[in-house]
Amino acid sequence: MPKLLREEITHVHHWTDGLFSFRTTRDRAFRFESGQFTMIGLEVEGKPLLRAYSVVSAYYDDHLEFLSVKVPDGALTSRLRHIEVGDELLVGAKPTGTLLADDLHSGRNLYLLATGTGLAPFLSLVRDPDVYARFEKVVLVHGVRKVADLAYHDWLQGDLLNDDLVGGHAQEQLIYAPSVTREAFHRTGRITDQMRSGALAADLGLPELDAEHDRVLVCGNPEMTRDSADLLEARGFVEARHGARGHYAVERAFVDSTQRAAA
Asked: Does residue 182 register a pLDDT over 50?
């Protein structure tokens, strides 16, 4: 059993009927790197019920933030969806994960490809000054079904650009590219289809994905993750695994889990 910290819920925001985020206090001993996840959960009948969640907040924030779907019959989310300010949350003391920019070779552009709540780790990465120091452009592509599912859309186009630490970098280097599949929007279709056809790069005014210059982090539903990996491998990208640097990385902890909470 991992060591667990007991944190207090300080804020809850319901984006839609199926999507919400929440903040907690943060133990001073809890340290994590941008893009990592940890186990969080609730005590149920005297035992911890835990799932993996990526950390939304920046590594230097004095709070922790998480993004979650609401699964009516989910063992954890059916309970977690009802949390309120003042409730207790269990947080694993040892974060981990593969979505680390440091595990990628140096490059020109960093693509962050997310579907649904796979956006969570990238919200931490876009507030990391070291990410902007390593790459010329940071391209955050977020695919969802409906416009309302674009959590943090306004924050990414507003508050982040005025952030005291990284706002200037974000204004110059961040490209936010939301996409919707089931409603009218200025960018529609699956992320991988847009990549494969070249429409995404053309729309953003960037060159086609190139393993020599571009680096990619992927977090999302299993189909998108698999298709992205296949597409990248076909173009000569090598995955960063087992401590060896590569051209791209995938958060497989969520892909391989039948109880995905953060992707």
From this structure: yes
**CA distance linking residue 122 with residue 5, whole number of Å:** 24
Q: Which residues pair with 249 in a beta bridge?
A: 217
Q: Which two tokens stand for residue 214?
A: 């571009």
Q: What is the C-alpha separation between 42 and 83, in angstroms, rounded?
A: 10
- Positive or negative, the Cα torsion across 108, 33, 253, 78? negative
d(CA 205, CA 201) in angstroms, rounded, equals 6
Question: What is the overall mean pLDDT for the chain?
Answer: 94
Rounded-to-integer distance, Cα 81 and Cα 216, Å? 32
Segment 230-261, tens digit of pLDDT: 999 999 999 999 889 999 999 987 654 433 33
- pLDDT band per the 50, 70, 90 thresholds, residue 1: low
What are the backbone dihedrals phi and psi of residue 244, each rounded to the nearest 5 degrees, phi first? -95, 130
Q: If residue 249 lies in a helix (H) or strand (E), which one and from where to where?
A: strand 248-250
**How far is Cα 4 from Cα 10, in angstroms, rounded to an integer?**
18
* The token pair that represents 170 in the structure block: 């974000």
Tell me if residue 101 falls in helix, strand or coil: helix
Closest CA relative to residue 118, chosen from 84, 91, 144, 94:
144
Dist. CA 65–CA 43, nearest whole Å: 19
Q: Is 119 helix (H, G, I), strand (E, B) or coil?
A: helix
Task: In whole angstroms, give the CA distance from residue 261 to residue 17.
Answer: 16
Tokens at 34, concatenated: 């941008």
pLDDT digits (tens, 9 = 90+) for 23-60: 999 999 999 999 999 999 999 999 999 999 999 999 99
Cβ burial 218-239 (10 Å sphere, 16+ → b, else e): bbbbeebbebbbebbeeeebeb
Strands 109-115 and 214-219: parallel
